[in-house]
User: Which sequence fits this backbone?
């Protein structure tokens, strides 16, 4: 009984021991499962941090910021990730041999590691030497548990002084080339972490791509800047050429003005028929030369963008009709019929536009057409305009000039609007190759288009199209109004002419000589002021460009003089009659401008307006 | 070897021979037997257990592995019905092992090293090639038989080539004769 009970007891005890053993096994299995679960969570968390780090650095590298800033940001993010103190970047030279501090650091803000920064600057590192040198040699990330104790770390004493211990570094590649080595330092001694080094290798490739891209961008910008500089140099050269052309033209115009003025004076002498013909020849040729010079100056202004629009309201039909009327006489001299078709115009066609540029363009086109028109042919001008647009109040205007000449060869169609481009035909009829480019410049300024096509039935059809705001034209000034001659002083007019050029003085003397005036000359602004102080004058004719004191300065000084002399009417004598020049003269106190070459009719009208003088006779009209 | 295999082995042994037998096998193999399905254990531990079973049952290694595979299939079908339900028969279930089952196993058990099987057709036979340094071809045979049993099919498993016989890889020709 006892033995049965005892055997039963033994069995139970054995059973309990088995169960306890199984329980213990299960408990350990559960603990192992929990440990695996926890380490899985930790791994996941760490992996997320790594991903976030990679993502943050990649995003910052792609942003539009200087490379230095992107790299400095990467250093700070890695230090934050590791909770390490110092990060730094070495550049690698092109030979893949030497390393140099980039000056990009993290952790240098409070000066605590200044010793280490300075030591880094003073320490020569190369392939194989020190932490970055070893990374450069192997091309692999490297971890040093304690640089303060590492024999291949030339900066170890400084590291020791600054309390820096663990370090790792990794390379940044562009293709096979190592371009940089990043190094990081901890305040603790830390054993190698292969996972961290793997992450850093990935960051190395992200930064490599960023550096490559930024460098490519910089190179592109350099190339753009280079191209820009070349373009600017070319433009400057072109401007210098234009300026030279303008200056030369201007210089030629001064003596030419004298030639024309003197020839005009000569024309008014009593001459034989033969002499009159010769003088007319001089005047015609001179006028042609002057037109050419003015065209060069116009073109220079167009090319330099200095040409401005002079907007005013005017009647388009009247303006075009006047030009056609003037040119009809020239046309009939050549046996060419010049017609105007305004069938496409609305009842009253006022526009706000630059009348001068439209007229000059039309004149150029008519003059061109006549050059190419054989006798017996016809040049037809057609003007059409739309009603004002309901939206913007603008009219669309079309102006065309058709001739029956040889037409424009297809190859020349685009070329002829370029300056100094001339067709064979253009050379034959004696053009300078400027007229059409000036037309194109004007039309572009008006915001329109100009072109050429074959005219129906042969010949060329030049057309221009532009838009202009519809307006009521200002009432036209009465044509050929007689100059007023009432307000004069009622005695011999005293005129002071300031002019440095002897030939021009001679012109003035010749032109004013026949009138009842008392003409006094000054050779510069200073002399003019002196003369004005001594005696009163009724009119001052003031040349602009003079030595010692120029015309504008003299005028300004004169207006400030006080006394009656300050109020003497002053007209500037000048070939520069561009809007901005005239504005400058007016601002200085000028009453008006007498344009060179002096038109005898204009000068006489001015004198007549100021006092009793001989009435203008034999006015010279440039052809 | 993933812990899940040891768990399966424990279940199969306990089912057929009782918990004491499993304890005895662990003792005979000198193992403590705290296996969790998420853990990874040396292949050697499985070999020790199989070897102990061989001694206890007086059977060769292949027979024990084959028995384990065939019996384990019923447990797997209970734990992971999702791999069995899409199929009506063994053949498509087997051929889904590379593309579907093993990738899922790798997701569930990080670090699992699963074998890759090359499949081809030879008339009405499915040809299955197995290459693995673990030499568990008998386990594969057992799994195939267990799966066939799950789908209610008879199976003829012909182990034409075997690494155990000096071949470069194991090649199985598998037929499922139509039911009479």
Assistant:
């Amino acid at each position: 009984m006892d033995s049965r009970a005892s055997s039963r007891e033994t069995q139970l005890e054995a059973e309990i021991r088995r169960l306890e053993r199984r329980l213990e096994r299960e408990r350990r299995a559960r603990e192992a499962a929990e440990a695996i679960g926890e380490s899985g969570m930790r791994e996941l968390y760490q992996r997320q941090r790594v991903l976030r780090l990679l993502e943050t650095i990649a995003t910052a590298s792609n942003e539009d910021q200087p490379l230095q800033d992107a790299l400095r940001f990467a250093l700070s993010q890695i230090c934050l990730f590791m909770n390490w103190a110092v990060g730094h970047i070495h550049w690698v030279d092109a030979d893949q041999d030497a390393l140099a501090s980039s000056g990009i650091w993290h952790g240098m803000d409070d000066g605590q590691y200044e010793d280490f920064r300075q030591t880094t600057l003073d320490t020569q590192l190369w392939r194989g030497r020190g932490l970055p040198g070893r990374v450069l040699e192997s091309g692999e990330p490297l971890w040093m548990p304690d640089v303060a104790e590492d024999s291949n770390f030339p900066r170890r004493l400084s590291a020791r002084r600054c309390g820096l211990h663990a370090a790792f570094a990794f390379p940044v590649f562009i293709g096979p080339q190592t371009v940089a080595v990043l190094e990081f330092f901890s305040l603790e001694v830390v054993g190698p972490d292969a996972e961290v080094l793997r992450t850093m290798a990935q960051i190395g490739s992200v930064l490599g791509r960023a550096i490559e891209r930024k460098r490519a961008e910089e190179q592109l910008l350099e190339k753009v800047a280079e191209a820009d500089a070349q373009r600017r140099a070319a433009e400057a050269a072109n401007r210098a050429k234009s300026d030279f052309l303008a200056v030369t033209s201007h210089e030629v115009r001064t003596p030419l003005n004298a030639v024309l003025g003197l020839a005009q004076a000569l024309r008014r002498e009593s001459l034989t028929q033969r002499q009159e013909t010769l003088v007319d020849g001089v005047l015609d040729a001179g006028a042609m030369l002057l037109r050419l010079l003015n065209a060069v100056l116009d073109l220079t202004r167009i090319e330099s963008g200095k040409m401005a629009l002079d907007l005013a309201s005017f009647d388009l039909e009247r303006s075009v009709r006047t030009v056609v009327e003037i040119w009809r006489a020239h046309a009939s001299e050549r046996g060419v019929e010049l017609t105007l078709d305004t069938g496409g115009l609305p009842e009253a066609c006022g526009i706000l536009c630059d009348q001068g540029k439209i007229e000059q363009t039309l004149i150029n086109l008519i003059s061109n057409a006549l050059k190419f028109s054989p006798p017996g042919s016809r040049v037809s001008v057609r003007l059409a305009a739309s009603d004002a647009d309901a939206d913007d109040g603008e009219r669309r205007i079309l102006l065309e000039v058709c001739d029956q000449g040889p037409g424009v060869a297809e190859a020349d169609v685009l070329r002829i609007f370029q300056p100094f481009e001339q067709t064979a035909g253009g050379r034959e009829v004696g053009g300078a190759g400027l007229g059409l480019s000036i037309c194109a410049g004007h039309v572009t300024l008006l915001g329109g288009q100009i072109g050429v096509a074959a005219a129906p039935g042969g010949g060329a059809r030049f057309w221009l199209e532009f838009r202009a705001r519809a307006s009521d034209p200002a009432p036209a000034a009465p044509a050929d109004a007689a100059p007023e001659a009432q307000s004069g002083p009622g005695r011999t007019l005293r005129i002071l002419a300031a002019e440095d050029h002897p030939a021009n003085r001679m012109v003035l003397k010749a032109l004013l000589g026949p009138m009842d005036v008392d003409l006094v000359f000054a050779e510069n602004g200073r002399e003019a002021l002196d003369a004005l102080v001594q005696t009163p004058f009724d009119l001052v004719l003031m040349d602009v460009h003079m030595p010692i004191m120029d015309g504008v300065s003299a005028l300004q000084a004169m207006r400030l003089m006080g006394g009656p002399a300050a109020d003497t009417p002053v007209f500037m004598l000048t070939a520069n009659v561009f809007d901005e020049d005239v504005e400058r003269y007016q601002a200085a106190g000028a009453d008006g401008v007498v344009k060179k070459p002096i038109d005898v009719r204009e000068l006489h009208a001015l004198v007549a307006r100021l006092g009793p003088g001989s009435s203008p006779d034999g006015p010279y009209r440039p052809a | 070897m993933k812990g899940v295999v040891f768990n399966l082995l424990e279940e199969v042994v306990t089912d057929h021979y009782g918990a004491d037998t499993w304890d005895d096998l662990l003792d005979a193999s000198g193992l403590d037997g705290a296996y969790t399905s998420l853990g990874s254990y040396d292949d050697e531990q499985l070999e020790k257990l199989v070897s102990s079973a061989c001694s206890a049952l007086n059977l060769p290694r292949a027979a024990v592995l084959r028995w384990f595979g065939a019996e384990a299939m019923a447990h797997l079908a209970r734990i992971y019905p999702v791999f069995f339900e899409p199929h009506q028969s063994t053949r498509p279930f087997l051929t889904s092992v590379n593309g579907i089952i093993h990738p899922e196993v790798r997701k569930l058990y990080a670090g699992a090293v699963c074998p890759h099987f090359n499949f081809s057709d030879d008339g009405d036979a499915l040809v299955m090639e197995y290459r693995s340094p673990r030499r568990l071809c008998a386990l594969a045979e057992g799994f195939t038989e267990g799966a066939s049993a799950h789908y209610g099919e008879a199976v003829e498993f012909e182990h034409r080539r075997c690494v155990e016989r000096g071949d470069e890889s194991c090649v199985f020709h598998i037929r499922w004769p139509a039911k009479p």
Summary: The interface with chain B takes residues 18, 21-22, 25-26, 28-30, 32-33, 36-37, 40 of chain A (CB under 8 Å). Chain A has five domains: 1-62, 67-192, 216-307, 312-470, 493-610. Chain A has 16 helices and 18 strands.
